[in-house]
């Protein structure tokens, strides 16, 4: 390494450990951070304790996510005491908030650097500067710049991969911090996306997950060509060797008929629709700035089911948004009963400083929020169980992802509908798509037998 003062850095193979909080955007950023560290000759560390560089890739979507990340950073102090050469970096969405970045540097001075979400490509420079000067760095651009292509990456899995198609978000849902920490929406040029996927497929990837905060607004920012999400998935569908295309997340407001028909026609696109509804009451949906009503959402679900009869539909729901009355909450329950989601991520509203809803009147007491969450979850779980039972005694194509978390003698995989299936089989099946007969249905998992 270029600096003669850094003898101890070269003395043994340097290792890294990255702890990731939050969504797939962060997971993908972690793969890019890992790729850059490996270019600097770091290799993965088996444990956080032994690593020479630790990165905490943070999330701030809800207060809990932020406090988890902060307490993890707090834990690192003892590692630094044991190993003064340890480099500690904080990145991700929490780090992008100026106030939080300052607070971390002030109260946790053993953190060597902070990288905002728009600055991750600067990791190699920052690490080299720390080797040379042993200084602390805060690199947080307050605004996004042009997309930086061709960064290295180290994918976590050999058979499935995450692929960014848009960055940022322009929707400004009133509860959400993402537009403030991920910047304005920018679409990647399709050539880069297609090339990245082809490269991954050549390396053995069979399933890709296209990532964006609102994938179906892909291409809206192109000024010279007309090319949208439907066009993109049609082109990706042609890539030989690729077996499954997933995408996350789509916004109900922008899910048009062209897209529904394209998905029906593209055989590689999974018939799994994750359509965050957030609430059932039109009053709350308007206050959230979601841009649809219960009626238009239900119409969308009907259309999806009409063109894609095997569609599984999942969602995100927030309870206890400011001003949500019992009647409003009942509207959420009504909607849930009408749609019967296959599963749902449900959340208690968490005020995020800097977002409009944090200052709305009529904030709901935590006890009521929790009660509503419980009522909602009970209904959703019943539906999930019912939906699971529909899989019984049928054979499904399952992409084998590894060993079951609860029983490492068993394999675990996913159907096209993203349902988790546990069955017994050889390790060599990992990464392959195999037929499995479903013999037992639980709420969240299915058990089966390899055919
Ligand atoms: N871009 C995606 C989701 C981003 S965040 C979309 O629009 O659907 C994932 C989920 O977190 C959201 O769908 C929402 O249900 C939840 N969420 C976001 N902000 C929240 C907040 N302040 N409190 C509670 N849940 C929140
Ligand atoms: Fe947040 Fe709304 Fe953007 Fe999703 S669409 S990231 S919920 S602002
Ligand atoms: Fe969290 Fe940032 Fe994702 S706030 S949910 S990691 S975009």
Instruction: Find the count of extended strands (DSSP E, 2+ residues).
Output: 19
Number of helices: 14
State the name of the first-level CATH class of the domain at 14-139.
Alpha Beta
Bound molecules: S-adenosyl-L-homocysteine, iron/sulfur cluster, FE3-S4 cluster
Q: Tell me the distance between the termini.
A: 53 Å
Strand content: 15-25%
Shape: globular
What is the level-2 CATH architecture name of the domain at 14-139?
A: 3-Layer(aba) Sandwich
| CATH T-level fold name of the domain at 14-139 | Rossmann fold
GO molecular function: 4 iron, 4 sulfur cluster binding; metal ion binding; tRNA-2-methylthio-N(6)-dimethylallyladenosine(37) synthase activity
Binding site for [4Fe-4S] cluster 2: 169, 173, 176
Protein name: tRNA-2-methylthio-N(6)-dimethylallyladenosine synthase
Domain Radical SAM core: 155-386
Main attributes of the structure:
single chain; 451 residues; alpha/beta; Rossmann fold; Transcription Regulator spoIIAA; OB fold (Dihydrolipoamide Acetyltransferase, E2P); 6-stranded parallel β-sheet; 5-stranded mixed barrel; 14 helices; globular; binds S-adenosyl-L-homocysteine; binds iron/sulfur cluster; binds FE3-S4 cluster; iron; EC 2.8.4.3; 4Fe-4S
């Amino acid at each position: 390494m270029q600096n003669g003062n850094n003898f101890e850095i070269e003395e043994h193979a340097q290792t890294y450990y990255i702890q990731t909080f939050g969504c797939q955007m962060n997971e993908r950023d972690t793969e890019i951070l890992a790729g850059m560290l490996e270019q600097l000759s770091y290799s993965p560390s088996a444990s956080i304790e032994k690593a020479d560089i630790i990165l905490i890739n943070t999330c701030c979507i809800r207060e809990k996510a932020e406090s988890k990340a902060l307490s993890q950073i707090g834990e690192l102090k003892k590692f630094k005491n044991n190993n003064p050469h340890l480099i500690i970096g904080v990145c991700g969405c929490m780090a992008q908030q100026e106030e939080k970045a300052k607070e971390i540097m002030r109260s946790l001075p053993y953190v060597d650097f902070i990288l905002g979400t728009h600055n991750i490509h600067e990791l190699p420079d920052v690490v080299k500067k720390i080797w040379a000067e042993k200084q602390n760095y805060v690199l947080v651009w307050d605004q996004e710049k042009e997309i930086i292509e061709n960064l290295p990456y180290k994918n976590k899995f050999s058979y499935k991969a995450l692929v960014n198609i848009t960055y940022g978000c322009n929707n400004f849902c009133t509860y959400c911090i993402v537009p403030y920490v991920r910047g304005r929406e920018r679409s990647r040029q399709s050539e880069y996306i297609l090339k990245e996927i082809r490269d991954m497929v050549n390396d053995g990837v069979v399933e890709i997950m296209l990532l964006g905060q609102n994938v179906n607004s892909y291409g809206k920012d192109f000024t010279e060509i007309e090319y949208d999400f439907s066009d993109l998935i049609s082109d990706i569908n042609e890539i030989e060797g690729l077996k499954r295309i997933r995408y996350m997340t789509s916004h109900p407001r922008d899910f048009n008929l062209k897209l529904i028909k394209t998905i029906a026609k593209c055989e590689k696109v999974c018939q799994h629709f994750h359509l965050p509804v957030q609430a059932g009451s039109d009053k709350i949906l308007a206050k959230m700035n979601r841009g649809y009503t219960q009626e238009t959402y239900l119409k969308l679900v009907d259309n999806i089911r009409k063109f894609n009869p095997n569609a599984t539909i999942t969602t995100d729901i927030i309870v206890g948004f400011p001003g949500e009355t019992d009647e409003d909450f009942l509207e959420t329950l009504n909607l849930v009963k009408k749609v019967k989601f296959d599963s749902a991520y449900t959340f208690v509203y968490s005020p995020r400083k800097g977002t409009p809803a944090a200052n709305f009147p009529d904030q709901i007491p935590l006890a009521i929020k929790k009660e509503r969450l419980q009522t909602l979850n009970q209904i959703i779980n019943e539906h999930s169980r019912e939906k699971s039972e529909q899989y019984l005694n049928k054979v499904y194509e399952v992409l084998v992802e590894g060993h079951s978390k609860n029983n490492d003698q068993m394999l675990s995989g996913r159907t096209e509908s993203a349902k988790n299936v546990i069955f017994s089989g050889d390790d060599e099946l990992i990464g392959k798509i195999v037929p499995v007969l479903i013999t037992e249905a639980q709420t969240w998992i299915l058990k089966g037998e390899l055919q």
